[in-house]
Give the backbone structure.
Amino acid sequence: MSSRAHLLRWLPAFLVGMCAATAAELAVGLLLYSGPGFMRSLTTVLGVEAGALGAGLWTAPSPRPDILDSLRRRWLLGLLSFLLATVFSAFWSIARIAGGSAPGQGMGLAFMAGLPLYACGGVLGGMASANVGEPAGRGTPIGAPAFLGAALGFGATGIFLPHVVAPASLLLSCLVLLSAAGLVYGSVVDARLRAFVRARRATPSGEVRVEDRHLLVTDSGGRFLLEGEHVRRWVRLGGEERPIAWDLAVLGSLAPEGDDAYRVLLVGGGASSLPAEGLPARRSVVVDVVERHGEILELADEHMGTHVSGEVAERTNVHVGNVEDVLEVLRGPYRLILVDAAAFGAVGGIRTVSRHLWDLIWSRLDRDGALAVGCFDLGDDVPDPPGGGAWTRYRRRLDEGIAALEMPIPSGETVLAVRGRAEGPLPDEMDGFVKAVEPRP
């Protein structure tokens, strides 16, 4: 399922602009009608209105995870300002408490023009800040709807103001419209995909970043570690149950049984949680992790829950550098080798892995061991095992909640597994992964 842009996402800014224009024109009409010095009053009123609107826009908060809480407070300030403007306008029209005196003019200018326009500017600025970081086409239009709403507000005020008994009724209408705009904006936000970049690093092959995405309408969220635009690893956010990672599923199904010591090789495993989640229960296992960039290791350690310490850290050896160069130095044999195909996404995909690198990987595998390659969609880009063997393909579908987060992840994950020797069939299932039935030729 894919989130769609809300059909009424333009309406909140339109209504806010309409209310701002109504307050501006109403203040001009009332203050100039009862005050002396047309040009002086006109200049003062327009200057204060423009300054108040600009000041409100100036106070727009910087983009941050709690931007919607700030915007909610700004919306409440807008409602309060129009409520005060309504009350003051009613007293102005009925009791004439202010008259044409300078203090009365100043109070009218503050309550009926300055405060409402400042609040409207703050709401519009907050809405614009909330758009930062949104995927293209998902943000809420601000400028054009606000000015179109202002045009309608000017026109409607000019038509109705001479005919209403109490001008405060127009401000009361604005209060209702602002409330409606807030409700519509709430539904727009619920249907909108929220994205926030928590951290980023620069590497020789491009940017590496950690990005959180959340969609309220489906109550789904995920944290993604990306190298360029390729997902290296993802985890669920909130209380949602995380599906077991493919490498942990392979470790649980293909690792040797018993307490015998053995070694595991993770090729491209800088973002893997296998050492953190798989080694505590296997006290005789040693893992070698090969990763091209140290930045991947840093971000995964800080944000993806892969941090290891104590005796687990002592059994985890991390090697950073060109994969072929590292494997030339490492010596096997390994009872289990795991190749994360996602680690090669930023350099052209698993299809770009050289024949020499595959030969190095196969040469490090124990003859009684197993090798597995995992990623989102491997296709036929992985070469056949040497010696006439054949891959066993496992698949797992991802739910629609992750698909709705609009990341470059296909609808499922694939694992290719093979044993070092022909004896011994592979299991039919591996913690959520099911053996694929290949069609007969």
